[in-house]
Amino acid sequence: MNDTVLQDLYRVVLDRKTNPQEGSYTCYLFEKGTDKILKKVGEECAETIIAAKNGEQGDTVGEISDLIYHLMVLMAHQNIPLDAVLGELEQRSHKIGNLKTFHQVDHNT
């Protein structure tokens, strides 16, 4: 696997934003705007949940890939650099073992 695959994909998404190409699905999403992009992110999130619940790893991998792509379109649309997200993930990786205490909820009341 290429360890720059996310950067490569994000570069393609950014290129479609600045250099629209006829027939490009990515360009279609940018043209439709925030509401359409958010709708697709929501749909892909729900499809990821369903695939995971169904236990089909291949389907789940496909849906996760769709979700990541649509999140990248959202990021590009809102001018969020991939490095900002990767930096946040790197920061969070240093917090391993910092488990927060969760409130216990009594679902019977």
General shape:
globular
**How many DSSP E strands?**
0
Count of alpha/pi helices: 5
Any idea what the CATH superfamily is called?
MazG-like
Question: What's the SSE pattern?
Answer: HHHHH
Oligomeric nature of the chains: single chain
Assign a percent range to the helix content.
Answer: 55-70%
Per CATH, what is the topology?
Helix Hairpins
Radius of gyration: 17 Å
CATH architecture: Orthogonal Bundle
Largest sheet: none
Poorly predicted ranges (pLDDT <50, ≥5 residues)?
Answer: none
The average pLDDT value, as a whole number, equals 91
Task: Spell out the blueprint of helices and strands.
Layout: H1 5-18, H2 25-32, H3 34-54, H4 57-77, H5 82-93
Structural account:
By secondary structure, the protein is mostly helical. The chain has a single domain (5-93), classed as MazG-like (Helix Hairpins). Helix content is 70%, strand content 0%. The chain has helices at residues 5-18, 25-32, 34-54, 57-77, 82-93. Helix 3 (34-54) packs antiparallel against helix 4. The longest helix has 21 residues, at 34-54. The relative contact order is 0.12.
